[in-house]
UniProtKB/TrEMBL annotation:
GO terms for molecular function: CoA-transferase activity. It comes from the Bacteria. InterPro entries: CoA-transferase_III_domain (IPR050483), CoA-Trfase_fam_III (IPR003673), CoA-Trfase_III_dom3_sf (IPR044855), CoA-Trfase_III_dom_1_sf (IPR023606). This is CoA:oxalate CoA-transferase. Keywords: Transferase. It comes from Alkaliphilus peptidifermentans DSM 18978. The keyword Transferase applies. The keyword Transferase applies. Gene3D superfamilies: Crotonobetainyl-coa:carnitine coa-transferase, domain 1 (3.40.50.10540), formyl-coa transferase, domain 3 (3.30.1540.10). PANTHER family: SUCCINATE--HYDROXYMETHYLGLUTARATE COA-TRANSFERASE. Pfam families: CoA_transf_3 (PF02515). SUPFAM superfamilies: CoA-transferase family III (CaiB/BaiF).
Length: 395
């Protein structure tokens, strides 16, 4: 089966998370990802634990479907090789601090002279414009600055960082979307362009209704624990032996919930008839629901809620996620075999397509594993030419 991005060649200069996540998405869809790493060192995340037979599981999970070539871009001959590769490729992706590629003579303005159809994606902390553009950033920094920490955590508690590195991951996803959009535009016009994605911008973009609530009410949103700030009931409730999530997202579902709780009187209760009223009278309503849910086990309630058609779910730990039948039926946990590390389970491809299915074709590469292969394939270099370059510490 052909893949959606088959034939698209990507020069991947990224490291750690945001950039590698973007190129992983493209690789899963069939793009040829040529990961360019520093000789002897490689992507920083190769040094992040935990390790499997000396290989970083962190790196392995983010760099599948890629080939690795080492190039020391501080050397002129390496830069010339890179330029020759740009002529043959479709996309360049980097997540350096703005100005880094320009200092090497490899910024977008230079590369588009070499290949006017090149798509140049730059993913950075604060973007290539604005007063913060030269500041360094990590996930925790943009989570703090972008407002998401201020609305995460227990009610009246301290701001809390979201567990997964959502500052990096959202930037990676938006970078992939930008690249795909630019590819479509190029297909129509033949023109390449620069895609400039800032981690901080992405945090603002996913604030959902927090900005709308502040603009409309003038009240600064604060942490609300696990409840939804606009929908009631929409939060976890304790059972006899644990805790489950219940999400009655509209008045119809609220009515169903009332029936299975044997409290149909609540449907017509003037305090709870509509979602705005349930929000307004949340402090009175929650204890009523909590008392009822506390009378049965999680298993009992999950079955009752499911039969009634009320959205619900267990609060799974990661081990339970890996065992979940729905997740496994959708092939969202895949075991990938690496030549050194052996078999390693990792998340599968979440985009399911009927004609051009994404898939994990190859494991993350060993540092420089494909250097000779890529130089021969893209630049038609001979083995002797490659050996001479190797002697000069070009890769």
């Amino acid at each position: 089966m052909n893949q959606a991005l088959e034939g698209v060649k990507v020069l991947d200069l990224t490291r750690v998370l945001a950039g590698p996540y973007a190129t992983m998405v493209l690789g899963d869809m069939g793009a040829d990802i040529i990961k360019i790493e520093m000789p002897g060192v490689g992507d920083d995340s190769r040094q992040f634990g935990p390790y499997v037979k000396g290989e970083s599981a962190y790196f392995l999970s983010l760099n599948r479907n890629k080939r690795s070539i080492t190039l020391n871009l501080k050397k002129e001959k390496a830069r010339q090789l890179f330029i020759e590769m740009v002529k043959k490729c479709d996309v360049v992706v980097e997540n350096f601090r703005p100005g880094t590629m320009e200092k090497l003579g490899l910024g977008y303005e230079e590369l588009k002279k070499i290949n006017p159809s090149i798509i140049y994606a730059a993913c950075s902390g604060f973007g290539h414009t604005g007063p913060y553009s030269q500041r360094a950033a990590y996930d925790a920094v943009v989570q703090a600055m972008g407002g998401i920490m201020s609305i995460t955590g227990e009610k009246d508690g301290k701001p809390t960082r979201v567990g997964p590195s959502i500052g990096d991951i959202t930037a990676g996803l938006f970078s992939a979307i930008g690249i795909l959009s630019a590819l479509n535009y190029r297909n129509q016009t033949g023109k390449g362009q620069m895609v400039d994605v800032a981690m901080l911008d992405c945090q603002v973009a996913i604030l959902e209704n927090a900005i709308a609530r502040y603009v409309v009410t003038g009240e600064i949103p604060m942490p609300a624990g696990n409840r939804h700030t606009s929908i009631v009931p929409f939060e976890p409730f304790e059972t006899l032996d644990g805790e489950i999530m219940i999400a009655a997202g509209n008045d119809g579902l609220w009515g169903k919930l009332c029936k299975i709780m044997n409290r149909e009187d609540l449907i017509a209760d003037d305090r709870f008839k509509t979602n705005p009223l349930r929000n307004q009278n949340y402090a009175e309503l929650r204890p009523i629901i909590a008392k009822i849910i506390g009378t049965k086990t999680s298993k009992e309630w999950l079955q009752i809620l499911e039969e009634a058609g009320v959205p619900n779910g267990p609060i799974n730990t990661i081990d339970k996620v890996l065992e979940n039948p729905q997740i496994n039926a959708r092939e969202m946990i895949k075991e990938v075999y690496h030549p050194t590390a052996g078999g390693l389970k990792m998340p599968g491809v979440p985009i399911k397509m009927s004609e051009t299915q994404g898939e994990i074709v190859k494991p993350a590469p060993i540092l420089g594993q494909h250097t000779e292969e890529i130089l021969k394939e893209l630049l038609n270099l001979t083995s002797d030419e490659i050996l001479n370059l190797q002697k000069e510490d070009i890769f």
